[in-house]
Amino acid sequence: METEFDWQQMEGWSREEVEWYAMGPFDGGIPGTVRRVRRVLDVSQRGLAAILGVSQSVVARWETGRTSPRASVLQQLLRLAGLGSRVHELETGEEVEPMRDDGARDRAGRRYPAHVDLYVGGWWRPRGIESTADILGWRRRSRSRRAPRVVFHTSLRHLYRLLDGTPVDHPAHDQLVAEAVHLDELREQRRQRILDERPWFRPPPGWLTA
Predict the structure, then answer these.
(1) Taking CA atoms, which of 10, 12, 21, 178 is between 20 and 30 Å from 159?
(2) At what angle do helices 29-41 and 56-64 cross, to 10 degrees?
(3) What is the CA radius of gyration of the chain?
(4) 29-76: pLDDT as tens digits
(5) DSSP 55
(6) Looking at residue 148, what DSSP letter applies?
């Protein structure tokens, strides 16, 4: 059976694009997705190109697999057609969502590296602080500013993941603050237990209350 071609659609194509198209049919993937969008919108290649502000030959190259649209353009295509995308694990079919947008950032406002796991080490203080009074002072200031001390391991990362599992995502800032507050509560419980068991250890008023 002879294959029929839409020669009007191929107007303006280069010779290479026509030959590539004639080799069809094409698998799904990006080319099939672009064609599906056009079918949902009921527009020609020229019509879709006008909507996107590109040339008709660009859409033709997408549909023949010679090039692919940028991820942002592909998302725009799906939105135009009222469609959505889903990423899933091939083995289990479980959906994998993008990393959260409200994930914790460092003090310069930068996102932490995506591949590291974040932990809370109390409240933030400058490096090199050794004086107990300075540590307590910074603890008070950082707690009032809701500034937890965030750390991550690189060399021991695989060991921590073996013991605790791999976190799904980076925590949000509020979650890190809550963890720092929880560490304060645990430290106060230990301190109170020690004082109850050894009352002679009780320090002067105001000591270790930060």
Answers:
(1) 178
(2) 130
(3) 29
(4) 888 899 999 999 999 999 999 999 999 889 988 988 888 999 999 999
(5) -
(6) E
Query: What is the Cα–Cα distance from 48 to 54, expressed in whole angstroms?
Result: 8
Task: Using pLDDT thresholds of 50, 70 and 90, give the confidence band for residue 97.
Answer: confident
The DSSP line for 102-145 is TB-B-TTSPBPPTTS-EEEEEE---TT---HHHHHHHHHHHHHT
Q: What are φ and ψ of residue 172, in 5° steps?
A: -75, 165
Residues in the chain: 210
Instruction: Count the alpha carbons within 13 Å of 111 in the hemisphere toward its beta carbon.
Output: 13
Amino acid at 61: R
pLDDT band, very low/low/confident/very high, at 136 (cuts 50, 70, 90): confident
Largest CA distance in the chain: 99
Q: Provide the whole-model pTM.
A: 0.63
What would the two tokens of residue 88 be?
């899933």
CA angle 99, 101, 106 (to 5 degrees): 100
Position 171, amino acid: P
- Pair of tokens at residue 141: 């200031």
